[in-house]
Amino acid sequence: MSSRPAHDLLSRIFGYDEFRGPQQAIVEHVAAGNDALVLMPTGGGKSLCYQVPSLLRDGTGIVISPLIALMQDQVEALRQLGVRAEYLNSTLDGETAARVERELLAGELDMLYVAPERLLTGRFLSLLSRSRIALFAIDEAHCVSQWGHDFRPEYRQLTVLHERWPDVPRIALTATADPPTQREIAERLDLTNAQHFVSSFDRPNIRYTVVQKDNAKRQLLDFLKVHRQEAGIVYCMSRRKVEETAEFLCKEGMNALPYHAGLPAEVRAANQRRFLREDGIVMCATIAFGMGIDKPDVRFVAHTDLPKSMEGYYQETGRAGRDGEPAEAWLCYGLGDVVLLKQMIEQSEAGEDRKTLERSKLDHLLGYCESMQCRRQVLLAGFGETYPQPCGNCDNCLLPPDAWDASVAAQKALSCVYRSGQRFGVGHLIDILRGGDNEKVRQFGHTELSTYGIGKDLDARSWRSVFRQLVASSLLEVDSSAYGGLRLTDGSREVLKGQRKVMMRRETPKAARERDRSGQ
Ligand code: ADP
Ligand code: ZN
């Protein structure tokens, strides 16, 4: 049986009884000398997919990885299993690097991990051409995607491997789930003819929850109370907010640490180490934190701001529950987040194509946030995967939201936008609707508008929710100016004419009760 040697190796060296999911098919495919593109969620077991074939084939398996820390961990782990593994990156002194190079040439290495910039040097390529290579593994292959936040320009040049060593199999791996990025990886790495192995991206043990932001700090605190003494990550949009949040949580008696690219390298490394080694640390971080962090018992990932895309959200939340035990992904978002992200796209210098792509990415994310359907279904649908039944493990499944017919409220809101000249932000619009009597309302003569005071039936918070949902579903658009004024869209005209019904999500009764109790 062809799988025999692979299987023997798996149990003899790695101590596992069985391959998991598609691992065996991938291993056999690559060991037989074929190219593969592997899409597997974090924790799915990508490493074995190239480690086993590296050992099965003659020569050294060359693993290209952008993550220096991870490289060292993996090499360390392999050595403990008796595998002759080494790495080459900027942290090595010249003497050690020279020894590793000699061992490569002498055929004494099973595997060699190398950073892409190192691999691409003329010196290293020439070394490779004098060595025997079992395979090339390109880890974190989404780094080749220009539009992802992990873009590494050197990844673009990795096609040189195929040009110079057409007979050496290549295996590219990523936990990136969205189809456009997958296509881009295949094209950029010259892997369109490779077999693609796509695993399900579902992470059944992660419970997804989205809450409407009204007092983010208190909401975060309430969420963390459920996770006392547990390790988790709190993602924030900016460095400043990372520090504020960490400080705030410490004051509240929690073991919180900050992490962002603006901190000195020693502080970052120390905080990361504590997160990995100690129990119950809450890491407050920007998205600079997390890639390659292999901590199995992260029990929650909280976002206090809207992430940039669904793909990013999936990656970030994927760091929770790698051990398979229950974990939570919690997202707190509000109108301000939507306005900010929409403005960032409109104001960016990017070309129209790129903006169109970013808009559609943001819409997918907003669709997820506003959905009244099972979150998992929405999440996976965006990655081209159908999840047949509601999952029973997300907020919408566990506590189904109320929907209400908001057509009349939407008409009031939209006509208020129209009457006031399509240039004001939400705060002012709500003042008009609720018949507020303040300086700005009087100054613009807005007490005279026909929409003045027609919205007293809803409180300000409910109006904010109405406006947020209108913006999220593109029934209103955000001005690209700095003021965030709102304008009508083609869709809003249909609503105004009564041609389109608008159903909205009512914040859950439970959430409302909690808020009332706290007097917010
Ligand atoms: P990824 O790189 O996809 O995030 P890893 O390769 O780090 O995942 O594997 C995740 C965890 O699963 C590791 O602890 C690994 O040892 C374990 N694992 C992988 N394959 C198997 C298997 N066939 N049997 C048991 N454990 C496995
Ligand atoms: Zn669900």
TrEMBL record:
Catalytic activities: Couples ATP hydrolysis with the unwinding of duplex DNA by translocating in the 3'-5' direction
Domain Helicase ATP-binding, residue spans: 27-195
Top-level lineage group: Bacteria
UniProt keyword terms in alphabetical order: ATP-binding, DNA damage, DNA recombination, DNA repair, DNA-binding, Helicase, Hydrolase, Isomerase, Metal-binding, Nucleotide-binding, Zinc
SUPFAM superfamilies with a match to the protein in the record: HRDC-like, P-loop containing nucleoside triphosphate hydrolases
PROSITE patterns xrefs: HELICASE_ATP_BIND_1, HELICASE_CTER, HRDC
UniProt xrefs under Pfam families: DEAD (PF00270), Helicase_C (PF00271), HRDC (PF00570), RecQ_Zn_bind (PF16124), RQC (PF09382)
Entry's Gene Ontology molecular function annotations: 3'-5' DNA helicase activity; ATP binding; DNA binding; four-way junction helicase activity; hydrolase activity; metal ion binding
Cofactors: Mg(2+); Zn(2+)
Residues covered by the Helicase C-terminal domain: 216-363
A cellular component annotation (GO) from this entry: replisome
Keyword tRNA-binding: no
Entry's Gene Ontology BP terms: DNA recombination; DNA repair; DNA replication; SOS response
EC number(s) per entry: 5.6.2.4
Family stated for the protein in its record: Belongs to the helicase family. RecQ subfamily.
PANTHER family for this protein: ATP-DEPENDENT DNA HELICASE Q1, DNA HELICASE RECQ FAMILY MEMBER
Name this polypeptide is given: DNA helicase RecQ
Organism: Stenotrophomonas rhizophila
